[in-house]
Fold this protein.
Amino acid sequence: MDDRLRIGDAEREAAAHELGEHYAMGRLTTEEHSERLERVWEARTAADLAPLFRDLPRAAAPKPPQPKPTAAQRARGWLPEMPRVPFLFKVLVAILVVWLVVTRLPLLIILLLVWLIAIRRVGHRRRYHGHWR
């Protein structure tokens, strides 16, 4: 963002909120907080806000918003992309399954039935509601 660009009330409110959090964490005294708040409300550009936070840690940049599903995706029951499962986790699950088969066959059958019932219910929700509940 260009520091010479004018800011609006939303940016001023965000800066005031951030200063309030720094005050609550004990990084600012009451006087410093009051002085900086006055300068926030008088700020006209992003460059006016920058000196107010120069000696304070800044929060990480916000994540970009998730894309909204289109009407066609909603009709098909679109779901957000699921996170990838690490390879080591897959290997551990496979080892657990083999161990259960060898040592505890009845427990494996019960777990398989629970899993099948859960999958059936998830499919029902996806088909009729188009999203997770």
Observations:
- Residues 85-129 form one domain.
- The longest helix spans residues 105-129.
- The helical segments are 9-24, 30-42, 46-49, 71-75, 87-103, 105-129.
